[in-house]
């Protein structure tokens, strides 16, 4: 089945040599990656992986030392006492389940942000017909505001401003001379 986002191949696949088939396949992959759905899927997938690594690291660090033991009050202290009375195997099960849940949550959140931001930025770039700082700022504003939508109008404004500022700062760095790769291997 032909991909609807790509132009048809110049000749049928069964009439191509293996080299031509490989080249046609590589062109299709590059065309998909360059499309808005492709960019959004790649950003979402990359965000999911990065968020999973970050979430795993942060969740596992919360179990590094028992500094908070005995310093809590009320129901939390009772829950902690019951937890400490459990056998080590049960404590480990609870910890691994907590780390897994926090890792999944972080991966989902990062993936969602990457998917939405990249898709919105690509659509804005396509509509405007140019690639500049305003695309990222607008996409950041829409993404940040959209993420905070359930929290009220003040949160939407803060989310919009925060994501737009962060996106603009990253874009400015990446477009600056310091962020650009060297012109050749000797320019360092």
Automatic annotation (TrEMBL):
<feature type="compositionally biased region" description="Pro residues">
    <location>
        <begin position="1"/>
        <end position="11"/>
    </location>
</feature>
<comment type="function">
    <text>Essential core component of the TIM22 complex, a complex that mediates the import and insertion of multi-pass transmembrane proteins into the mitochondrial inner membrane. In the TIM22 complex, it constitutes the voltage-activated and signal-gated channel. Forms a twin-pore translocase that uses the membrane potential as external driving force in 2 voltage-dependent steps.</text>
</comment>
<comment type="subunit">
    <text>Component of the TIM22 complex.</text>
</comment>
<feature type="transmembrane region" description="Helical">
    <location>
        <begin position="40"/>
        <end position="63"/>
    </location>
</feature>
<dbReference type="GO" id="GO:0042721">
    <property type="term" value="C:TIM22 mitochondrial import inner membrane insertion complex"/>
</dbReference>
<dbReference type="InterPro" id="IPR039175">
    <property type="entry name" value="TIM22"/>
</dbReference>
<keyword id="KW-1133">Transmembrane helix</keyword>
<keyword id="KW-0999">Mitochondrion inner membrane</keyword>
<keyword id="KW-0812">Transmembrane</keyword>
<keyword id="KW-0472">Membrane</keyword>
<protein>
    <recommendedName>
        <fullName>Mitochondrial import inner membrane translocase subunit TIM22</fullName>
    </recommendedName>
</protein>
<keyword id="KW-0496">Mitochondrion</keyword>
<dbReference type="GO" id="GO:0045039">
    <property type="term" value="P:protein insertion into mitochondrial inner membrane"/>
</dbReference>
<keyword id="KW-0653">Protein transport</keyword>
<dbReference type="GO" id="GO:0030943">
    <property type="term" value="F:mitochondrion targeting sequence binding"/>
</dbReference>
<dbReference type="Pfam" id="PF02466">
    <property type="entry name" value="Tim17"/>
</dbReference>
<comment type="similarity">
    <text>Belongs to the Tim17/Tim22/Tim23 family.</text>
</comment>
<dbReference type="GO" id="GO:0008320">
    <property type="term" value="F:protein transmembrane transporter activity"/>
</dbReference>
<feature type="region of interest" description="Disordered">
    <location>
        <begin position="1"/>
        <end position="21"/>
    </location>
</feature>
<keyword id="KW-0811">Translocation</keyword>
<keyword id="KW-0813">Transport</keyword>
């Amino acid at each position: 089945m032909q991909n609807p986002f790509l132009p048809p191949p110049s000749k049928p696949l069964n009439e191509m040599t293996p080299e031509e088939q490989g080249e046609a396949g590589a062109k299709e992959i590059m065309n998909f990656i360059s499309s808005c759905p492709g960019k959004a899927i790649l950003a979402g997938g990359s965000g999911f992986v990065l968020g999973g690594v970050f979430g795993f690291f942060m969740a596992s660090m919360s179990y590094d030392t028992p500094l908070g033991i005995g310093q809590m009050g009320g129901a939390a202290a009772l829950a902690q006492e019951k937890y400490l009375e459990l056998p080590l195997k049960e404590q480990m099960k609870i910890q691994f389940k907590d780390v897994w849940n926090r890792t999944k949550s972080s991966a989902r959140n990062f993936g969602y942000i990457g998917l939405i931001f990249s898709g919105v930025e690509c659509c804005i770039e396509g509509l405007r017909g140019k690639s500049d700082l305003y695309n990222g700022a607008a996409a950041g504003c829409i993404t940040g505001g959209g993420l905070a939508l359930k929290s009220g109008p003040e949160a939407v404004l803060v989310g919009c401003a925060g994501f737009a500022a962060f996106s603009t700062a990253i874009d400015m760095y990446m477009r600056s001379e310091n962020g650009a790769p060297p012109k050749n291997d000797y320019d360092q």
